[in-house]
Amino acid sequence: MGLTTRKHHTIYIDHDKFELLAKLSRATRIPQAALWREALGAGLAEQRKTVELTQAEAAERAYVSCTQLRALERGSRQPTICEFLSLGEALGVDPRELFSRMLSKLHYPVGYRPVRTV
Questions:
Q1: CB distance 51 to 91 below 8 Å
Q2: Under DSSP, is residue 77 helix (H, G, I), strand (E, B) or coil?
Q3: Cα–Cα distance for residue pair 84/17, rounded to 1 Å
Q4: Of 68, 110, 75, 105, which is closest to residue 90 (Cα–Cα)?
Q5: Which residue(s) pair with 4 in the sheet?
Q6: How many structural domains is the chain composed of?
Q7: What 8-state DSSP symbol labels residue 76?
Q8: Closest by Cα among 62, 17, 73, 64 to 40
């Protein structure tokens, strides 16, 4: 386990678990935050299509605009926690399941739990 110290925070990171993500990020020159947004957007679009909703219908049910939903599905925008919860409800899926799908797209191990002390 690696140890990284920043200011007054100590963060414990198992670097082996993040190796694939780091390689993908370096190889494609995409910041890691963009990879997270794209994986989440892909999961949202996949679930929306599974329940056979158009973007307009899903946006209306989630109380977001179509433009916001399009940006989320493209991965060009990160949802707020309220939008994320609302989208989960509108798409008929537990938000924890959406998040788990995003982690699996990024090849995180099953049952991954970050360890952090502040």
A1: yes
A2: coil
A3: 25
A4: 68
A5: 11
A6: 1
A7: S
A8: 73
Name the residue with tokens 């920043």.
6
Residue 65 Cα distances to 1, 55, 105, angstroms: 43, 9, 26
Structural domain range at position 41 = 2-117
- ∠ Cα 86 77 115 (to 5°): 75
pLDDT in tens, the chain (118 residues): 444 433 444 444 455 545 555 555 555 555 677 888 888 999 999 999 999 999 999 999 999 999 999 999 998 998 999 999 999 999 999 988 888 888 888 777 656 566 665 5
Could you tell me the two tokens for 58? 């899903």
Q: Which CATH number belongs to the domain containing residue 47 in this structure?
A: 1.10.260.40
* Alpha helix segments (H runs only) across the chain: 19-28, 32-50, 55-62, 66-74, 81-90, 95-105
